[in-house]
Every structure is written in structure tokens, then in C-alpha cells.
Specification:
Strands 6-5-4-3-7 form a five-stranded antiparallel β-sheet, with helices on one face. It has a four-stranded antiparallel β-sheet with strand order 9-10-8-11. A two-stranded antiparallel ribbon has the order 1-2. The protein is elongated and about 80 Å long. α3 (about 30-40) crosses α4, α5 runs antiparallel to α6 and α11 packs across α12. It is about 40% helix and about 30% strand. The chain is an alpha+beta fold and about 325 residues long. It contains twelve helices and eleven strands.
Length: about 325
């Protein structure tokens, strides 16, 4: 590096050095900062480092001078605090729709926002398997194009894959093309979904992003969501997600459930604290809400066995009864 240019960039390198090599438990002193600067071809004196750090503090950087656990400086507040970075890294690693390659890239970018010691400590304490991750390397391109189509109110053309068994035992992928009016992207459970309308039908459908290929934005306005959903001015993603169970579509209806107190937390987690309590006894509570009558809701209720009873609507009670009878028949044979 040409010396004159290097000296002009010195103060920027000092910021990078403090971010990368210092934290509250690992302060670095002026001599060590000089040593790091020399790797970039910059010669600096300790007194000049003190002056540069004072200027950075005056500008607004949260650089802390300390004498414990040793004398030196460390970068205080960062763009994201350590617990926030851990939370984001865990979310990226747990998201099945992000490929192993993209997971590693994103985790590396987040770790670059930590000090080196913090990143190494995290790597030692965490083990994660990528065996359930999707293999679709187009996933971020797909997310970007769907987001752009939603913002531009345009339809999209996409290829959608599903698995099929052929020749008795061979597993393969089949692919179909769809023209979709996209309304929202929802992360639910282990997957990322597009909520949209297939041009041939009068309802909403859900499509997993990891099964999509070759998404293209069409120069054709999308169908307005008010034609296929109860939402008029805007598509209410939070409300829609709250009424949908495991991304199974269905008719929205009033639902009344009687539950034991053993499942109170699970019910609140699913329906929020704003449920209307119709009656309360020593052992049960009954509440009313709205939800989509679907196989997803049936599966959710059945996992709690006798702790949840459907009071209404009759259609949902009948679906539960039919499923129980089918299970009984399956396991009696």
C-alpha cells in the first residue's frame, strides 16, 4: 500500500481492528493496535493512537477505555449486540428453507459482526446438523423476485416441484408451471411460504419457496387480494397467519373449543392472549375465536387428545370424528 494513502486510511483501520480484535473481556492496547496497523503497511506511534481514539469517541463511536481485565480499549456498542447475533444465527441455522451453503455464508457474515474471540467461543459451544436443510440454491433469488413482484403488484410465473414414486420404488421430482398473483411471504413452522392466487381459482393457496424454480416476474398486474380474500385495503399477514394452521387453506369460521388447563400455554401461544373466554370451570376453560377449518386445524387439535374438545362448528366436530374413526380402523387391522 502506498504510504500516504495508508496513513489517510489509518483511522478506518483502527475501527476495524477494535471491532475484530476487542471486546469487553479482551481489550487491546495502543501497542497492539500499532502492530495490527503494521500488517496493513501503516506505521503509527502509540501517542497518535490515543489521539485517533479520542477523535473516534468524539465522533460517536462507543470505544471504552478500561484497566480490567487488562489495560486497553474495546469496542462497546455494536450494530448488533451479542445476544442479538446469537438469536439471528440460531434462526438461520434452524430455518430448513435455507441451504447448507447459504447457512454457512450467512452465519459467517453474522460472526464478522462479533470480535474474533466471541466468534471462536460461539463455534466451540454450538453443534448443528444440516441434514434437513433444503438443496435449492435459488432460494434467495426466489425470495427477492417474489418480494419485488409483491411490491410491483405483478403476477409471477414459476415452476413448482413435488415428489412422486415411479417404477414401484424410485423417488423422483415432478414439475408444473403456475401463474400466481402473489400477496405475502410467511415463515411458518420449518418452511417459508408464498400466499397467492392461482389464476384459475377463486381462493388463496400456499406454496413452499424451497419447491420453486425459475421464478419470473410477468408484465401483468396481479389480481387484487380483495377478490379472493376477506381483506379489502391491505392483505393482513398477521391476521391471516393467526387463522391458518400449518399452512392448510380452508373456510374461515367461528370456532368454540373447551380445553383443560394443562394446555393453556399451548392455546395462548397459538391464538394469542386476546381470545374471548366464554366460560371457566375448575378444570376447563371455553373460548371462541376464528380460524380456517382445515386438516391442519384437525391435526393440531388431535395432538392434545382429550384435553381439547370442539364445541362448534359441527363441520369441525365431524372432521375430528372421521379422523379418529380412520385412525381406529387403521390400528385395529
Amino acid at each position: 500500500m502506498e504510504p500516504r494513502i495508508g496513513s489517510k486510511l489509518k483511522i478506518l483501520y483502527i475501527i476495524d481492528i477494535l471491532k475484530k480484535y476487542s471486546d469487553e473481556e479482551h481489550p487491546i492496547n495502543a501497542t497492539e493496535i500499532c502492530e495490527h496497523l503494521s500488517k496493513y503497511g501503516i506505521t503509527a506511534e502509540r501517542k497518535a493512537i490515543y489521539s485517533d481514539i479520542e477523535n473516534l469517541i468524539f465522533y460517536g463511536f462507543d470505544i471504552i477505555k478500561t484497566r480490567s481485565p487488562r489495560a486497553g480499549f474495546f469496542m462497546g456498542a455494536r450494530e448488533l449486540e451479542l445476544p442479538e447475533l446469537y438469536l439471528l444465527i440460531d434462526a438461520v441455522q434452524a430455518a430448513n428453507f435455507i441451504t447448507p451453503k447459504k447457512t454457512r455464508e450467512l452465519v459467517k457474515k453474522l460472526e464478522n459482526m462479533m470480535s474474533g474471540e466471541q466468534a471462536r467461543a460461539r463455534e466451540k459451544s454450538v453443534f448443528f446438523e444440516y441434514k434437513n436443510k433444503c438443496k435449492n440454491e435459488e432460494i434467495f433469488i426466489i425470495i427477492d423476485r417474489l418480494r419485488a413482484a409483491i411490491e410491483q403488484n405483478k403476477k409471477v410465473l414459476l415452476k413448482y416441484q413435488h415428489r412422486k414414486i415411479i417404477d414401484g420404488r424410485q423417488l423422483t421430482f415432478m414439475q408444473r408451471e403456475f401463474v400466481i398473483s402473489p400477496y405475502a411471504l410467511i415463515w411458518m413452522g420449518d418452511h417459508y411460504y408464498l400466499v397467492g392466487n392461482h389464476e384459475k381459482y377463486e381462493n388463496l393457496m400456499h406454496m413452499r419457496l424451497d419447491r420453486m424454480r425459475g421464478v419470473t416476474i410477468l408484465d401483468e398486474p396481479r389480481r387484487h387480494h380483495s377478490e379472493v380474500s376477506p381483506y379489502k385495503d391491505r392483505f393482513d399477514i398477521a391476521d391471516y397467519a393467526g387463522k391458518t394452521f400449518n399452512m392448510f387453506g380452508g373456510e374461515v369460521n367461528d370456532i368454540e373449543l373447551t380445553c383443560s388447563y394443562d394446555v393453556l400455554d399451548q392455546v395462548i401461544d397459538r391464538f394469542s392472549e386476546n381470545i374471548y373466554l366464554a366460560s371457566i370451570t375448575d378444570k376447563t376453560f371455553t373460548f371462541r375465536t376464528k380460524g380456517m377449518i382445515s386438516e391442519g386445524l384437525v391435526g393440531w387439535i388431535l395432538q392434545f387428545g382429550g384435553d381439547i374438545e370442539v364445541k362448534s362448528p359441527k363441520k369441525l366436530r365431524d372432521m375430528i370424528t372421521e379422523k379418529i374413526e380412520l385412525l381406529e380402523k387403521t390400528y385395529k387391522n
